[in-house]
Design goal:
single chain, about 210 residues, alpha/beta, Rossmann fold, 8-stranded mixed β-sheet
Length: about 210
């Protein structure tokens, strides 16, 4: 059994009313709208449930989906729990610059709740850009907080950036367009049409 660290999302060990579970499932279902064809990367796939959602829901459109995570126990759990003929799971570090040599490029990359865990954020963001095919889409999310380098409430996070800092993450990359969304619970809305005063999470759709 995969250890519940308090940060991992393991649907088999959680109640259906768990807010963390609801948020994560909502993001993967949201991402389905932007996945059209080809090969998909779930970058930091955790227990593998999100990779499985995409494999099941997009089995007629995609060629394959690869889940990558640094934790071998999570990879083992995903292989055992979420088998699908179009998915595979591999242990690797999201900041490893040789990933493109190992896996090539992808038509779509999904990377949810990953950035805030990574000390080498430049290596991670560089990798995402290199691994994405021209014309491909990146769907990325992170929780908001007090800002880069400032303490946050989670012992698992390096920091939690502000919405302004989230926008700045993509400035030095040659994406053709970036669209921003915000999330609160299961609700995901375009940032420009958000009606509530506070949303704890941001999502960006980056077209290369």
């Amino acid at each position: 059994m995969l250890e519940d660290t308090g940060e991992r999302v393991i649907p088999e060990q959680m109640k259906i009313t768990n807010e963390l579970l609801i948020e994560h499932i909502a993001r993967y279902h949201f991402a389905l709208n932007f996945i059209e064809a080809g090969v998909v990367l779930d970058f930091a796939s955790g227990s593998g449930f999100g990779t499985h959602i995409i494999a099941k829901k997009k089995k007629q459109q995609i060629d394959a989906i690869i889940g990558i995570d640094i934790d071998q126990s999570a990879i083992d759990y995903a292989k055992k729990t979420y088998y699908h003929p179009k998915s595979s799971f591999h242990q690797a570090d999201v900041t490893d610059p040789t990933l493109i040599d190992q896996f090539g490029q992808f038509d779509t990359i999904v990377s949810f709740e990953t950035y805030e865990h990574i000390e080498d954020e430049q290596g991670y963001l560089d990798n995402v850009f290199k691994l994405l095919k021209p014309g491909g889409k990146l769907i990325i999310s992170t929780p908001f907080g007090m800002g880069r380098g400032k303490p946050c409430g989670s012992p698992f996070h390096v920091h939690q950036i502000t919405p302004e800092e989230f926008h700045q993450l993509f400035d030095c990359y040659d994406y053709q367009s970036v669209s921003y969304f915000v999330q609160k619970g299961a609700l995901i809305a375009p940032e420009s049409f958000a009606t509530q005063s506070y949303y704890p999470l941001g999502i960006a759709i980056c077209q290369k």
